[in-house]
Amino acid sequence: MTSSELYQMFDSEQFRSSGHALIDLLAAQLTHELSGKAELIHWQPPVEAAQSWQQPMPEVAELSHSDFITWLQEEILPRNLAMHHPHSMAHQAAPPLPMAALCDLVAALCNQAMALYETGPAATLLEHQAIHWLTTAVGWSHGTGVLTSGGSQANLTALLAARQHAAANIWQEGVTAAPPLRILASELAHYSVKRTAAIMGLGADALISIATDQQGRISLEALKEAHTACQHRHEPVMAIVATAGCTATGSIDPLQAIGQYCQAHGVWLHIDGAHGAAAVLSNQHADKLQGIHLADSVSWDGHKLLYMPATVSAVLFRNTADSYLSFAQEASYLFNDEHGEETDFNLSYRTLECTKRMMALKIVAAFKLYGRKGMASLLDHVFALAEQFAVMLSSTPGFELLMHPQTNIVCFRYHGNVSNTAVLDSLQVHIRQQLLHRGLFHLSQVEINNSIWLRSVFMNPQTQPAHQQHLLQEIIAIARARA
């Protein structure tokens, strides 16, 4: 290519005109989805859908800039799940704040690597600001942490610190240098906790699952018994993991009691607050997380109830020194701060990632644009939606509620006149598939106590009780048609 052609690839005027066209397209799509008039999902089995994507890599340009916008409009957007649609109720992924999405555009073009302060000065300071706000909200005066690409990485980072805290030589000498370490967590804990145990070389069996009560909360008595049993076997418990909003049911473990127990026995407490930690911002719901300040570490996903575009998560530490335990490694080609003055600003000391996205911009911007009260109002609304839906289910014949919602997640099932367990489970699967394949509603399903339940996660502030009532009507119709 000629120099002129290379320059055209970075032409600012072309970026401007294409950007305007793209924003117009996305704004129209956003309006269409929020109104509920957009198609929720155009379902195709993945093997069938993949056929139309089997194309050779282009040797030369095959799209003009205007063709590119048309391609997005005709080929990409219609094949997406409409995240801002009020019938999207399946998972904890947020319909992101549009202004936060614009921040991701800024982050992408500026492309700050953030391994060191010098490779992302403003990005680093923004992250410090965001982390300070989040740790203060948790209840810590001198907490710290870093942003990560997802809650699984946040949990891994926290539990690596817990492992190092329990066995100081393990980073250098390996797991054989320590006695068999154990992690205690709820039977409803996120799969990333068991995966972390395996990644760390402890083995997946190092995670000991603790029974829960009828509300999906970890049993304190069962936790104590498991801890005592580990002590008798000379198996140190490197961490107890409590959950603030478990993925399956949204249940919140008794954080205060667990925190007091951990402090009394000198055990690291990690709270997986990926979903529910945002409740600390709410005047209405902060008391549900009473005791979260007793944790040694907390994970918190911004792309859930902070309504950020995926992915941005925080791993927070109560003590600054603990935040350096996860990665005890030297790399002179990066870290050459002889006097230690910049240590806290070189984020690669404390994160798995070297090149790291400018994630904090969207968090800081959202709080500046809407304030704590505005951000909390999003959570308050969807928690209220879950309460309303639970009441609706309880008063509608044929439906069964698994438990009263503690967050914005509601698990339920339709039984009609069915009593056979296997048939009842099969019915739930059929209902969910029909709702999805016909593009009516997007729900998920979960297995609790060997039974299949439908799972609705209310993330969209545009969802209203009328949509919930419509959902119940469609479920009844699908079930009757199958009978």
From TrEMBL:
Keywords annotated in UniProt: Decarboxylase, Lyase, Pyridoxal phosphate
Keyword flag Glycosyltransferase: no
Family matches, as InterPro entries: Aromatic_deC, PyrdxlP-dep_de-COase, PyrdxlP-dep_Trfase, PyrdxlP-dep_Trfase_major
Gene Ontology CC annotations of this record: cytoplasm
Cofactor requirements of the protein: pyridoxal 5'-phosphate
GO MF annotations, alphabetized: carboxy-lyase activity; pyridoxal phosphate binding
GO biological process, one term: amino acid metabolic process
List of residues that carry N6-(pyridoxal phosphate)lysine: K304
Keyword Nucleus in annotation: no
PANTHER family, sorted: CYSTEINE SULFINIC ACID DECARBOXYLASE, GLUTAMATE DECARBOXYLASE-RELATED
The family this protein is said to belong to: Belongs to the group II decarboxylase family.
Stated name of the protein: L-2,4-diaminobutyrate decarboxylase
Lineage: Bacteria, Pseudomonadati, Pseudomonadota, Betaproteobacteria, Nitrosomonadales
